[in-house]
Design goal:
The protein is mostly helical and about 575 residues long. The protein has 2 domains: about 325 residues, no CATH class; about 130 residues, STAS domain (Transcription Regulator spoIIAA). β2 and β3 form a beta hairpin.
C-alpha cells in the first residue's frame, strides 16, 4: 500500500469505502457478530487478569473497533484488551483504574508520536526469539496466576470443590469445542441443506465457544442460586451503562492527600516504554501475519497511528491499554470478513452489552472466566520454537532463553535483556564479518559484508597474519570489496594504516570491485598509495608487475573462511 506524501496521513477508510460492495455486507456482519461474541466474555476475563473491576474490560473493547475501521490498513485485525496487555497493566498500573486509564493515554501519545515520525522501524530491533520468549513466559505466568497453584496446595483444605469442578469442566468444554471446529471440514455447495446447516452450527459453536461456555456456567450458577445454595464465586454486580466521555485523570485522590501526575508517572516506571512498544509489536506482527496469509499489504506507520489514536481516545472512555488480538483476529479472518467495517458490528455489540446486559453478568462464575483466560493463553506457549531454533540456528536460543527466564522475574527485565542480547549478537556479526582469504602469489582478501569501525582491526589482523606470515614469503594484497556496500571513516583510517604497514614491508594493497558509494568515500579520503581496479584479475596482474599470469592458485575457491 503506497504511503501518502501529504503532511497528514490519508484515512485508509477512503480507499475501500467508495468501492464497498453490498455482497460484502453479510460477511462483515457475520464476522462482527462472531468476534463480538468472543470479545464480551474475554473482556470480563482480561479485566480480572489486569486487576481491575470487570466493567473496565468492556470499556476497553469498543473504541478500538471504531477507530481501527477508519485508520487501520488490515481488514482482519481487531483491537481490544488482550492477555499480554492485561498482564502488563497488572504489573504497571498498581491495580488502580486511574493509573490504567492514564497509562492508556500516555501509551497512545507515544505510539501516535512514533507513527507521525515514522519510527516503526524501531520495532524491527525486537527479534522473533525475544517475542517468543516473552509470550511463552507470559502464557505460563498467566495460567499459573489463574490456577493459583501455590495457594491451592498451601490451602488445599479450603479449596472450593464447586469452583474446581466448574473450572475444569469449562476448560474441557473450551478445548473440545476448539478441536471440533478445527477438525470439521467446510461443507461444499454440493452438500445437502441439512449437512450445511449442521456444519454451520458446529462452526458457530466453536467460534462462539467462550460465550457459550460462560453462558452455560452462568445458567448453572443461577440454578444453584434459585435452589438456595451457591458453590461458586460469582462475578457480582457490574455497573450498567456506557462510560462517561471525559479525559483521563492526571492526579489521584488518596487518603493522605493527592497523588500528583509526576508521582503517577514514576509509579508506572519503565511501563511507559514497555506497554506502548509491546502494544505496537503485537498489533503489527498480527497485521503482517494475516496480510501475508490473505494476500494484501499493510502500512506499519499507519498501524502505529491507528493504535495510538485508539489508545488516546479509549482513555476518554476509561479504557486501559489495548492492542491487536491474535485470537479475535483469527476469528474475524475465518468468518470471511471483507473490510474493517466488521469492527463496527463488534463495537456496537459491546456497547449493547454495557447498556443492557451487565445485570446478567452477575451470575457468571469466576472459575469460568479463569478458564477463558487459560484457554486463550495456553496456545501462546510454543514449545516447538526451542526445537526449531536448535535445528536452524542454535545461537538464537540465547536471547530466547534469556527473555523466557527473566520474564518470570520481571517482564520488563526479560524484554530488555532479550533485546540487549540480540543486539550484542548483531553487533558481533558486524564486528567479526566473514573474511575469505585465497592463497597465491598475491593474497586475495574478500570481506563478506560492509566494513564498519568494529570490524577494521579484525580485517587488519587477518590481512597482516597472512601477508606477513613467517612461514611464507611476504605477499602484496588485493582487497575484493564486491560485498562491501558501505564503509565509515574509522574503517577508512584503519585501511590507511594497513596501507602504511604493508608499504613498510615493501608490499602494496590494491582494491577491486568497489561500489560507487564506497569508492567515493575512499577517493574523498585521499589515501596515500590508493589504487583500485574493476576486477581482481586486473588487480592481481598489476600487483605482479603487469604480468598476465594467473596470480591466484586454482584452489582459491576452496580456501578457508576466517571468522
Amino acid at each position: 500500500m503506497p504511503r501518502s506524501r501529504c503532511p497528514l496521513p490519508a484515512l485508509p477508510i477512503l480507499r475501500w469505502l467508495p468501492r464497498y460492495s453490498l455482497a460484502w455486507l453479510p460477511l462483515d456482519l457475520l464476522a462482527g457478530l462472531a468476534v463480538g461474541l468472543t470479545t464480551v466474555p474475554q473482556a470480563l476475563a482480561y479485566a480480572e487478569l489486569a486487576g481491575l473491576p470487570l466493567q473496565y474490560g468492556l470499556y476497553s473493547s469498543f473504541m478500538g473497533c471504531f477507530v481501527y475501521c477508519f485508520l487501520g490498513t488490515a481488514k482482519d485485525v481487531t483491537l481490544g484488551p488482550t492477555a499480554i496487555m492485561s498482564l502488563l497493566v497488572s504489573s504497571y498500573a498498581s491495580h488502580e483504574p486511574v493509573h490504567a486509564v492514564l497509562l492508556a493515554f500516555l501509551s497512545g501519545c507515544i505510539q501516535l508520536a512514533m507513527g507521525l515520525l515514522h519510527l516503526g522501524f524501531l520495532l524491527d530491533f525486537i527479534s522473533f526469539p525475544v517475542i517468543k520468549g516473552f509470550t511463552s513466559a507470559a502464557s505460563i505466568t498467566i495460567s499459573f496466576n489463574q490456577i493459583k497453584v501455590y495457594e491451592t496446595l498451601r490451602r488445599i483444605g479450603e479449596t472450593r470443590a464447586g469452583d474446581a469442578v466448574l473450572g475444569l469442566s469449562c476448560l474441557a468444554a473450551l478445548a473440545g469445542l476448539r478441536a471440533v471446529r478445527s477438525q470439521v471440514p467446510r461443507a461444499g455447495p454440493a452438500e445437502s441443506l441439512a449437512v450445511r446447516i449442521s456444519h454451520l452450527i458446529v462452526w458457530i459453536s466453536g467460534t462462539a465457544r467462550n460465550a457459550l461456555v460462560v453462558l452455560f456456567a452462568g445458567l448453572v450458577a443461577y440454578s444453584f442460586q434459585v435452589l438456595g445454595s451457591q458453590p461458586f464465586r460469582l462475578t457480582g454486580s457490574i455497573p450498567q451503562g456506557l462510560p462517561p466521555f471525559r479525559p483521563p485523570r492526571f492526579s489521584l485522590a488518596a487518603p493522605n492527600g493527592t497523588v500528583p501526575f509526576q508521582s503517577m508517572v514514576q509509579d508506572m516506571g519503565v511501563g511507559l516504554a514497555v506497554v506502548p512498544l509491546m502494544g505496537l509489536l503485537e498489533t503489527i506482527a498480527i497485521a503482517k501475519a494475516f496480510a501475508s496469509q490473505n494476500g494484501y499489504r499493510i502500512d506499519p506507520n499507519q498501524e502505529l497511528l491507528a493504535v495510538g489514536v485508539a489508545n488516546v481516545l479509549g482513555s476518554f472512555v476509561s479504557s486501559y491499554p489495548i492492542t491487536g488480538s491474535f485470537g479475535r483476529t483469527a476469528v474475524n479472518a475465518q468468518s470471511g470478513v471483507c473490510t474493517p467495517a466488521g469492527g463496527l458490528v463488534t463495537g456496537a455489540l459491546v456497547l449493547l452489552s454495557l447498556a443492557y446486559l451487565t445485570s446478567l453478568f452477575y451470575y457468571i462464575p469466576k472459575a469460568a472466566l479463569a478458564a477463558v483466560i487459560i484457554s486463550a493463553v495456553v496456545p501462546m506457549f510454543d514449545a516447538g520454537i526451542f526445537r526449531t531454533l536448535w535445528r536452524v540456528k542454535k545461537l538464537d536460543l540465547v536471547p530466547l532463553c534469556v527473555t523466557f527466564l527473566l520474564c518470570f522475574w520481571e517482564v520488563q527485565y526479560g524484554i530488555v535483556a532479550g533485546v540487549l542480547v540480540s543486539g550484542i549478537l548483531l553487533l558481533y556479526s558486524i564486528a567479526r564479518p566473514p573474511i575469505k582469504v585465497s592463497e597465491g602469489a598475491v593474497l586475495l582478501v574478500q570481506p563478506g559484508s560492509s566494513l564498519h569501525f568494529p570490524a577494521v582491526e579484525h580485517l587488519r589482523d587477518c590481512v597482516c597474519s597472512r601477508a606477513l606470515a613467517a612461514a611464507s614469503p611476504p605477499r602484496s594484497v588485493v582487497l575484493d570489496c564486491c560485498h562491501v556496500s558501505s564503509i565509515d571513516y574509522t574503517a577508512v583510517l584503519g585501511l590507511a594504516e594497513l596501507l602504511q604497514e604493508l608499504r613498510r614491508h615493501g608490499l602494496s594493497l590494491a582494491f577491486c570491485g568497489l561500489k560507487d558509494s564506497v569508492l567515493q568515500v575512499l577517493l574523498s579520503a585521499d589515501l596515500e598509495g590508493f589504487q583500485h581496479f574493476p576486477s581482481w584479475e586486473e588487480a592481481g596482474g598489476a600487483e605482479l608487475g603487469g604480468s598476465r599470469a594467473e596470480p591466484f592458485s586454482s584452489t582459491a575457491d576452496s580456501s578457508g573462511l576466517i571468522q
